[in-house]
Amino acid sequence: MRINRRSMLLGGLGTALAASPTLAQDITFFRIATGGTAGTYFPIGGLIANAISNPPGSRTCADGGSCGVPGLVATAVASNGSVANVSAIAGGSAQSGFTQSDVAYWAFNASGIYEGRPKVDVLRAIANLYPETFHLVARKGAGIKTVKDLAGKRVSLDEPGSGTLVDARLILAAYGLTEKDLKAEYLKSQQAADKLKDNALDAFFSVSGWPLGAIAELAATTGIDLVPIDGPEAESLVKVYSFFAIDEIPEGAYKGTAGVKTVSVNAIWATSSKQPDQLIYGITAALWNPSTRKLLDSGHSKGKVIKLETATQGLGIPLHAGAEKFYKEKGLIK
């Protein structure tokens, strides 16, 4: 009997599937919308996607338990940031995404930047990940020591669709400024860093877990000043907008750059209420698996502050039912 190559391949696959039921199971694809590749969302998203994925025939943890969600293939996808990610979740083009706690709150309640627009009432939280720190980065020699010094300067407020742009406007307003008082530009962090390095920009806002790669490179090669966002203006900002918190960038976070007082919001991993409860329960459990802890601790400096004990704090939106079940079992919520 003549056996061709295709028959052999198909036969081999059939044998493998029969021998290993896990290879025959359905594959579930799960996108995590993140941010620009130069920011913190993207690498953190990659670590989490790796941790929760467990396609057929994949690994087991060192302790013998299964890593990730069986049959799940998760991918971190670059995006324009928080606002764009909320839209992607609402529209179904992404199964989940990272968003700032303020943007999530406004979207869910149709307030703030979403006032007059339909509520994104399908938005649900999987976990609070880490504080997102406001960086106001100035070119050395630009004469910018306070937020008020931005008047008349060439300043990037981040790209349209990003949560950074929204909050940069709030910060300016707290100090009595608007973007009309600046020579405003709207660039991604990496583009802004490149222009600042070329002396074509004086300062830029960026919201990210520190250290941010684009800023670290500037600090090491060009030299920068971090501008504080503090004083009565910052205290008023936190009082009016409860999703803000007082924060700081410590000494040594960036080479040769003094630490500063600033403000922050939380980075939230969000999904849609339409995602199956069992799936989100499994993803939440995989996020807090001990093997994921090792990945987060070794994969990125901000990964170390992603902790189970703070997972349900400062969310701004309801938990997904699947995540809520997990946290109730762990005693984090009643």
TrEMBL record:
Residues 1-24 form the signal peptide. It comes from Reyranella soli. InterPro entries: TRAP_TAXI (IPR011852). The keyword Oxidoreductase does not apply. Transmembrane segments: none annotated. Keywords: Signal. This is C4-dicarboxylate ABC transporter substrate-binding protein. It comes from the Bacteria. PANTHER family: SLL1037 PROTEIN (PTHR42941:SF1). Pfam families: NMT1_3.
